[in-house]
Design brief:
Elements (H helix, E strand, L loop, with lengths): L2 H12 L15 H6 L6 H14 L1 H17 L3 H14 L3 H21 L4 H7 L5 H11 L4 H23 L4 H23 L12 H10 L10
Helix pairs in contact: 3-10, 4-5, 4-8, 4-9, 4-10, 6-8, 9-10
Amino acid sequence: MTNNQSSLLHLLQLASPALPVGAYGYSEGLEILVERGLINNPQQLKAWIDQELSYGAIRLEAAIMVRAYESLQAEDLEALKYWNAWASAAKETSELRSQSWQMGNSLIRLLVELEPELQSVAGRVGTPCNYAIAFGIAAAYWQIPRMAALVGYLHSWASNLINAGVKLIPLGQTVGQQLLLELAPQLSVVSQEIVVLDQREQLHSCTWGLALSSMAHETQYTRLFRS
């Protein structure tokens, strides 16, 4: 097996919806938006995802993933700890923070079971570990090219949000796959933008819509998703 084949297979495994980290349990506030009629068709769902990719918290998450990737490559475990704390502090609601911690802790435990050599890295990062940090560690350890890891991270996020929309609105599976296909060019453009962000000065996002929907979801009467 060539190195390219190996890295591709690792990326497919890491970005797979079957990865047992619990991503399927979260809608990131989408559930309350559907209940209130703010998102009730494919066009509105795509517009929400477009805005999040252009201005929202996912850009920040992906940038932190890249920094975790680069920190492990440089064997700078103190930087990993710093960015993990930074990621926790950047969450605007307790539900979004809990989501990142739950998924991150699940992924880092899985990585240690699959690759025992990462035990020392996990120990230095500490708990709770954010999902972006754990994803970056895995991508760097498995020598997945940085840009491929970034596109995979964004694609996995978009796929999970579309799947939530398919269940909630509801939409057909074919419509969901069409939305994901339509998002492909933007995922590529956004990846190029994120990878060149300055170390700190450009790490910001406009997430008030996500924050408000996340806070409202916490007190929603009935719900299918954890956030």
